[in-house]
Amino acid sequence: MSSKSTAPAGHHLRRQMDDLPPHGRGLRRSGRNAGAAPERLCVTQHLHIHGFHGANEEAASEFAALAIYGSDARQIRKLIEDDPALNQPLHADLPYRKAEVIWAVRNEMARTVEDILARRTRALFLNARAALAMAPAVADLMAKELGWDDLTRTKQLAAFRRSPRNFILLR
């Protein structure tokens, strides 16, 4: 006797789906999905994940460029209120502010200049020349936050300066 199940493929998934709460009584399907299992209510439809700041556009527009941080935008704005120098842009061609570097280091575990400029802000991909220009300021902010010495700061800048070469178009 074989220990292999004789149930049709996906049978265990169907049983799991049958345990989900139903959505809409008397819902009918037509076309390609006719005869399929009834639709079920999405169990995460009203789940507010990290970063949620409200269902309306006014909640997001209140924070302007910081709206991409969702509910964290309030805390980044608080950093700026506590130290207005953190509201300075890192580069005139990009929307990123010094406070975003501080936030990423303190709350998102950013530990390299490349991490800030490539992944946290996407500056490297949007404008590699601007990212190169921003790098020293980012390194200074990170050095102060993370307690880097001059050698670590210099190594971070050298490591980052190798990255933009792949993103700058030569004329």
Describe this structure in words.
The chain has helices spanning 11-18, 57-61, 73-82, 98-107, 113-120, 123-126, 128-146, 150-161. It starts with 10 loop residues before the first helix and ends in a 10-residue tail after the last helix. α4 crosses α7 (128-146) and α5 crosses α7 (128-146). It is mostly helical. The protein has 2 domains: 9-47, no CATH class; 83-166, Helicase, Ruva Protein, domain 3 (Orthogonal Bundle), CATH 1.10.8.
The run of helices and strands is HHHHHHHH
Number of E-state strands: 0
CATH homologous superfamily assignment of the largest domain? Alpha-glycerophosphate oxidase, cap domain
Relative helix content: 40-55%
Strand content: under 5%
* Level-2 CATH architecture of the largest domain: Orthogonal Bundle
Q: Radius of gyration over alpha carbons?
A: 25 Å
Q: Using the coordinates shown, work out and report the CATH topology of the largest domain.
A: Helicase, Ruva Protein, domain 3
Number of domain units = 2
List low-confidence stretches.
Answer: 24-28
Briefly say what this structure is.
By secondary structure, the protein is mainly α. The protein has eight helices and no strands. It folds into two domains: 39 residues, no CATH class; 84 residues, Alpha-glycerophosphate oxidase, cap domain (Helicase, Ruva Protein, domain 3).
